[in-house]
């Protein structure tokens, strides 16, 4: 429909949901509008909507999306400033998760983001692999989405470093794993070729 092409309409609808005290729909609408703005190259608009989300719902479960979308946007810039901002978002997530006694998965996700941002800023590939192994081990059986995403990044790093067999085993595990999210599974299929 029309809202599919106009994130401003989605924002307006989400704000109406805020006023109607329909918090779940409001959060989902703000997240989707931010995603649409980012995908459409309107970074400032997307960031503004995410800031509105955080202001309206400071303790919401949707905050994971707040951090993830900001992190992905900064990393997607592909420049030193973006990587530095991504690193700050990762540290902020880790700090907020600890300070606010959020579920442990939030802090681990921040750890995952920090490892990726560090590598993007010129960090050592082996250090990245070790940090990703820590994330994978700490999320095994508890946080399947973070586990799968970290596993794909670990496999990608192994492949880039020449360990094709190690990467292949991880990719195959993800493809066959119950609970792997669609993006991780797609990344694993891409890695398998």
Your description of this structure?
The protein is mostly helical and 193 residues long. 79% of the residues lie in helices and 0% in strands. It is globular, with a radius of gyration of 18 Å.
List its salient traits.
193 residues, mainly alpha, 10 helices
Q: Return Rg in Å.
A: 18 Å
Percent of residues in beta strands:
under 5%
Element order: H for helix, E for strand: HHHHHHHHHH
**Helix coverage percent of residues?**
over 70%
Strand-pairing-aware structural class: mainly alpha
Helical run tally: 10
Biggest pleated sheet: none
Q: Taking all residues together, what is the mean pLDDT? A: 91
Annotation, overall tally of beta strands: 0
Q: Which of globular, elongated, flat, extended, rod-shaped describes the shape? A: globular
Low-confidence stretches: none
Distance between the termini: 35 Å
SSE layout and pairings?
Elements: H1 7-19, H2 23-39, H3 43-56, H4 63-77, H5 80-99, H6 104-120, H7 125-139, H8 144-160, H9 164-176, H10 182-192
Short description:
This protein has 193 residues and is mainly α. Helix content is 79%, strand content 0%.
């Amino acid at each position: 429909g029309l809202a599919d092409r106009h994130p401003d309409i989605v924002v307006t609808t989400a704000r109406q949901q805020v006023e109607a005290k329909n918090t779940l729909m409001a959060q989902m609408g703000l997240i989707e509008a931010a995603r649409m703005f980012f995908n459409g190259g309107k970074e400032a608009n997307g960031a503004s909507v995410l800031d509105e989300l955080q202001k309206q719902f400071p303790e919401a479960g949707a905050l994971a999306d707040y951090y993830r979308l900001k992190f992905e946007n900064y990393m997607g810039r592909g420049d030193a400033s973006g990587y530095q901002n991504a690193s700050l978002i990762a540290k902020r997530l880790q700090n907020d998760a600890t300070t606010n006694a959020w579920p442990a998965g939030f802090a681990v996700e921040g750890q995952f983001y920090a490892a990726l941002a560090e590598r993007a800023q010129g960090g050592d590939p082996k250090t990245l692999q070790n940090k990703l192994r820590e994330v994978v081990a700490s999320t095994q059986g508890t946080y399947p989405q973070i586990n799968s995403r970290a596993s794909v990044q670990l496999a990608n790093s192994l492949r880039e470093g020449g360990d094709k067999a190690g990467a292949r085993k991880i990719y195959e595990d993800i493809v066959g794993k119950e609970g792997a999210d669609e993006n991780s599974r797609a990344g694993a299929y891409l890695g398998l070729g």
